[in-house]
Specification:
Sufe protein. Chain: A, 329 residues, 3-stranded antiparallel β-sheet, 25% strand, 10 helices, alpha+beta, extended, 2 domains
Length: 329
């Protein structure tokens, strides 16, 4: 009877101890791919870390795969020193352990920019478009836009000068005069509207030579000059006016200007005659001074800063995010 009771007590104690131990699993990226770990936790303490799967290079990662788990157990923390020459592997193991423990990996604080009176940034914004429209054979037109922004900022982030340009490329069945085309890679074919009369004239079958020639001939909207006329002036003239608007504003303030003074329907600067949904109410809330400012803008610039033709605002933000000190001697 005593032996039976002793056995039951031992089993109960063993079960109680086992119940306090947990094996958790986590995964994070290493240098060569995902690193998967198992973490044993007893009474809130890390007692074992095992690397279950990895794709690291053995000759480089071997020491880290052994030393980092041991260091984590010894420190009872996933934040330990990395192994020299195996930083990615070390951090991958630590982040996998953090994932297992339900902790988010620490985010690195962005490096502080060196102090300067002025900064320069270059930004790009890419967007694709299904359109504009179809050709007379009911074949879809496709196009894409790349917006480029070179911007000088002062130390407060305000725009001192901006130069924006844009490349728009369409499939060759689009009838726009001077529009750069992409007819596809050699081995493909596409309808071609040669004289821009909204009717397909032929089917292009690119060769290596025509493929290279076509791309080498692409021109940005500034390079297209008077060949890219809009309802008011050329694209370059409209963009020049907007660049004047940007000066003295931060990118955040440019975005706020866009939200307040442009149509919520098509993104174009508001005018007294704007008739898209909500335009009249938005315009009516402006002061006479604000309306006069917009009238001055729209004498030269009526296009949108963010629509299916390209996101100029995003390019400005990209330029700000990439800015570097401008050191001019």
């Amino acid at each position: 009877m005593k032996k039976t009771l002793l056995l039951l007590v031992c089993v109960s104690l063993l079960f109680a101890v086992s119940a306090q131990a947990q094996v958790l699993t986590g995964e994070a990226d290493g240098f060569g791919g995902p690193i998967k770990v198992s973490v044993t936790v007893e009474d809130g303490k890390i007692t074992a870390v095992t690397v279950d799967e990895n794709s690291e290079t053995p000759s480089i990662a071997e020491e880290a795969l052994k030393a980092i788990p041991e260091a984590i157990v010894a420190a009872n923390s996933a934040d330990v020193d990395v192994v020299a020459d195996a930083t990615f592997t070390s951090e991958g193991i630590m982040n996998a352990v953090k994932a297992a423990m339900g902790e988010a990996p620490a985010e690195e604080a962005p490096a502080a920019l060196p102090e300067s009176d002025f900064y320069i940034g270059f930004g790009i914004s890419n967007s694709g478009r299904i359109g504009p429209g179809k050709d007379d054979k009911d074949v879809q037109v496709y196009s894409f836009n790349q917006v480029y922004a070179t911007v000088i900022f002062d130390k407060d982030g305000k725009i001192v000068q901006a130069l924006v340009d844009q490349l728009e490329v369409a499939t060759p069945n689009y009838d726009g005069a001077s529009m750069p085309h992409f007819s596809g890679y050699p081995g493909q074919s596409y309808n071609y509207d040669e004289n821009h009369d909204e009717k397909v004239d032929s089917v292009l079958e690119p060769t290596n030579d025509t493929y290279l020639e076509e791309i080498n001939g692409w021109m940005t909207k500034r390079q297209r000059g008077t060949g890219y006329r809009m309802g008011t002036g050329t694209w370059s003239e409209q963009m020049d006016k907007f660049q004047e608007v940007f000066v003295g504003k931060t990118v955040e303030e440019v975005n706020a200007w866009f939200e307040k003074y442009c149509s919520s329907a098509n993104g174009r600067p508001l005018q007294a005659t704007s008739d898209k949904e909500g335009d009249a109410d938005k315009y009516a809330k402006l002061t006479d001074e604000e309306k006069a400012m917009l009238a001055d803008v729209t004498t030269s610039a009526t296009m949108s800063l963010n629509d299916s033709h390209g996101n100029i605002l995003a390019a400005l933000q990209s330029a700000f995010d990439s800015r570097q000190p401008l050191n001019v001697k």
